[in-house]
Design brief:
The chain is of the alpha/beta class. The chain has 20 helices and 21 strands. The chain is globular and about 60 Å long.
Length: about 600
C-alpha cells in the first residue's frame, strides 16, 4: 500500500497547531506556542509543521493532503451578519476587525501555500467537524455520540453528532451568538482572568465560593430547556459586535465592576465563580443526557474548549450514565489540527476504520519532539551547566529521594505532550503529602495565584484506594473526590481565604482541593513506562503511589519544549532539581544564569 500523509492545520485564532497522519495514524502533533514561546500563539504554525515533517523525514511535497480546520468564508459570513444586525453599534470593533479579515484571514488557502512554499490545493473542514473528528476517530469506540461545545466556530457553538465506523453525522446544533463557551469566558473576564486562557483559573476558584448567584444568572442571563438547549439574553453581553465580553448592564446586574487582572478575588468573586460553574455543570449534564437519549449510544466523546472543564466532566462521568467517555486531550482549537486530518482520512477519503477497544490511538498524547543525548549535552555545555548522568534505576531512586525530601523536580523525558496538560513528560513534580507544597509551588516556583490547585499523578492500579470513582483518567480531564478514608475532619463555619488555603484536608493535602476534589491523572505502564516506574519507586520508598504533577512552566509561559527551555525555566524559578532524560542538575551547583539570545531556539533532534 502506498503511504499517504495528511497534514492538519489550525491557525489564526488561538492555540495554533499542526498534526501529521501517516496512513491514518498520528505521526506527530504539536502546538506552535511550544516553539515560539508565545503562550496561545495564534500565528501560522510554521515551526510545528516543520517539526511534524522532520519527525516523519519528509518534505511538504511528500504530503498528499493539507487540510485547514475550519471554513473562513462561513466564519466571515457570520461576522458580517453580526455587525449588520447590530449596526450602528460595534463600529469600533468593525473598523478594527474587517481590515484584518480582508488582508489575511479570508485568504487562508493562499496564506497556507505561501507559508509552506507549495502550490498544493488546501482542503477545508468545518470547525465542529474537526472537533468532532478529533474526539471520535482516535477514541476506542466503534460507535459513540459526540458532543462538541466551544466558543464559536463558523456559526455553531454546540453540536451533537454520532460516530459510527468511519462516518460522522450531525444531529443537532446551537448557533452563535448563543454560546456556553462564550458565557463562561464572559465570567472569566468578569473575575479578572484572561479570556481563552484563564478559564481554568475560574474553574479552580469556584470551589472556594457558594453558588449564591445561580438563580439570578438563570433568571436574567440564560433560558435553559429540559433538553439542555439554551438562549442567552444578549443585552448583557458585548462580544457580538463589541470589544469586550460584557457590558455595564452585566456589571450593574451583579453590583460590582469587573475585577482587575492583578487584583485578588474576594468572597464575592469566589461566589460568582461557584455560580457559573454550577450552571455549567447543570447545562452540560442536560445536553449529554439528551444526546444519549436521542442517539441510543452507550459511549460519549467530548471535544471543543469546554471539554477541558474537568469539573463538569467529572459530573458527567458520575451522573450521565454512559458506559465510557473519551475526551480529546487537546480539546480546544489545537485539537482542530488532528481533527481536520482525521476527518479527511475517514470522511472525505472514505478509508475504513479499525478500532482497538482496549486503547485509544492518541499514543498517550506524547506526540511532540524528543531530544537525544547529544542535543541535551550541547545545551548544558553551552550554559556551562554542572550535571551528572545516571542509569535508570539509580535515577528513579535519586528523584524519589529528592521529592521525599521536599524538593521540587523539573522532569523532562520522551516526547512532549500535545494539549494543555503536562502528563509526566514536561512536568514539575512534588510530594503530595506536604501541607506546604501547594503554596510553595504556586508562589515560589510557578509565580501564580495561591488558590490554584495541583493535580495528582497516581499509579492507575491504586487510584481506587485514594479516590472515590474507579476512573481511568490518563489525560487529566476529570475531577474525582479524595476517598473518605483518606480525608481529615475540618472545622465548620465561615473561614477566610487564607484559612481555607491552610487547611489540611487529607493524607495528600497538596493535591486535595477545598471541596476534596482532585484533577486526576492515572498513569499506566503501557503509555508512559518511565513515569510509571518513577511512581512505583516513590511508592516503594514512601508508601504513597502518587505525586504532584504540574506543568513545567511559570506563569504566562507555555510548557517547556526543548532542553534549552527546561534549563531556562529551571534557572529562572525556584525548582530545586532538573532532570532531562538521564541528566541531573542541582540548583546549588549551577553557575550564574545568562541567556544566549542569539542562540537558535529550535535544536536539531538526534
Amino acid at each position: 500500500m502506498d503511504t499517504v500523509y495528511i497534514l492538519g492545520i489550525s491557525a489564526y485564532y488561538h492555540d495554533s497547531a499542526a498534526c501529521l497522519l501517516k496512513n491514518g495514524e498520528i505521526s506527530a502533533a504539536a502546538q506552535e506556542e511550544r516553539f515560539s514561546r508565545r503562550k496561545g500563539d495564534s500565528r501560522f504554525p510554521l515551526e510545528a509543521v516543520k517539526y511534524c515533517l522532520e519527525e516523519a523525514s519528509i518534505s511538504i511535497e511528500d504530503v498528499d493532503h493539507i487540510v485547514f480546520y475550519d471554513k473562513p468564508i462561513l466564519k466571515f459570513d457570520r461576522i458580517l451578519a453580526s455587525y449588520i444586525h447590530r449596526a450602528p453599534l460595534g463600529v469600533r470593533s468593525f473598523v478594527k476587525s474587517i481590515p484584518l479579515w480582508l488582508k489575511s484571514k479570508l485568504w487562508v488557502e493562499a496564506n497556507v501555500q505561501k507559508a509552506l512554499g507549495t502550490k498544493k490545493d488546501i482542503l477545508f473542514a468545518e470547525h465542529h467537524q474537526s472537533h468532532s473528528a478529533s474526539a471520535f476517530y482516535p477514541s476506542p469506540f466503534d460507535e459513540a455520540v459526540i458532543v462538541t461545545v466551544d466558543g464559536v466556530g463558523e456559526w455553531a457553538t454546540t453540536t451533537i453528532g454520532v460516530g459510527s465506523g468511519n462516518r460522522l453525522d450531525l444531529l443537532k446544533k446551537i448557533d452563535f451568538p448563543h454560546s456556553l463557551g462564550l458565557l463562561y469566558s464572559a465570567f472569566t473576564y468578569y473575575c479578572g482572568f484572561r479570556v481563552n486562557s484563564g478559564e481554568y483559573k475560574l474553574m479552580g476558584l469556584a470551589p472556594y465560593g457558594n453558588p449564591v448567584y445561580l438563580d439570578l444568572i438563570k433568571k436574567e442571563l440564560i433560558d435553559i430547556a429540559d433538553d439542555g438547549s439554551y438562549r442567552l439574553n444578549m443585552k448583557y453581553f458585548d462580544y457580538v459586535a463589541g470589544l469586550k465580553m460584557i457590558n455595564r448592564k452585566f456589571e450593574k446586574l451583579f453590583g460590582r465592576q469587573a475585577l482587575g487582572a492583578e487584583d485578588e478575588p474576594d468572597r464575592f468573586f469566589m461566589d460568582i465563580a461557584a455560580s457559573i460553574q454550577a450552571l455549567f455543570n447543570e447545562i452540560l449534564l442536560k445536553i449529554v443526557v439528551y444526546a444519549k437519549n436521542i442517539s441510543g449510544k452507550k459511549n460519549l466523546c467530548l471535544a471543543g474548549g469546554v471539554a477541558l472543564n474537568c469539573v463538569a466532566n467529572g459530573e458527567i462521568f458520575r451522573e450521565a450514565g454512559f458506559s465510557e467517555i473519551w475526551i480529546q486531550p487537546a480539546a480546544g482549537d489545537a485539537g482542530g489540527a488532528p481533527g481536520a486530518a482525521f476527518y479527511t482520512h475517514y470522511s472525505y477519503l472514505g478509508n475504513p476504520r479499525a478500532v482497538n477497544e482496549k486503547s485509544d490511538s492518541q499514543k498517550g498524547s506524547f506526540l511532540g519532539p524528543e531530544y537525544g543525548e547529544e542535543s541535551i549535552r550541547n545545551v548544558l555545555d553551552r550554559y556551562d551547566a554542572v550535571y551528572r548522568k545516571y542509569e535508570d534505576n539509580d535515577l528513579f531512586e535519586f528523584i524519589a529521594d529528592m521529592i521525599d525530601n521536599q524538593k521540587a523536580v523539573g522532569f523532562f523525558q520522551g516526547r512532549s505532550e500535545f494539549g494543555p496538560r503536562a502528563l509526566g513528560s514536561r512536568s514539575i513534580l512534588g510530594d503530595p503529602r506536604s501541607p506546604d507544597m501547594q503554596r510553595n509551588l504556586n508562589l515560589k516556583i510557578k509565580f501564580r495565584e495561591s488558590f490554584r490547585p495541583f493535580a495528582p499523578s497516581i499509579l492507575e492500579e491504586y487510584s481506587g484506594e485514594y479516590f472515590d470513582e474507579p476512573l481511568s483518567s490518563p489525560y487529566m480531564l476529570f475531577t474525582s473526590f479524595v476517598s473518605e478514608k483518606r480525608r481529615f475532619p475540618v472545622s465548620s463555619g465561615e473561614k477566610t481565604f487564607k484559612e481555607l488555603l491552610a487547611e489540611k484536608r487529607s493524607e495528600i493535602p497538596a493535591v486535595t482541593h477545598v471541596d476534596n476534589s482532585a484533577r486526576l491523572q492515572t498513569v499506566s505502564k503501557e503509555t508512559n513506562p518511565r513515569y510509571h516506574r518513577l511512581l512505583e519507586v516513590f511508592y516503594e520508598k514512601t508508601g504513597c503511589p502518587l505525586l504532584i504533577n504540574t506543568s513545567f512552566n511559570v506563569r504566562g509561559e507555555p510548557i517547556v519544549n526543548s532542553p534549552r527551555d527546561a534549563y531556562s525555566c529551571f534557572m529562572g524559578s525556584n525548582i530545586d532539581v532538573l532532570v532531562i532524560e538521564n541528566f541531573v542538575l542541582l540548583k546549588e551547583d549551577q553557575p550564574p544564569f545568562r541567556e544566549r539570545d542569539t542562540w537558535q531556539k529550535t535544536l536539531v533532534r538526534d
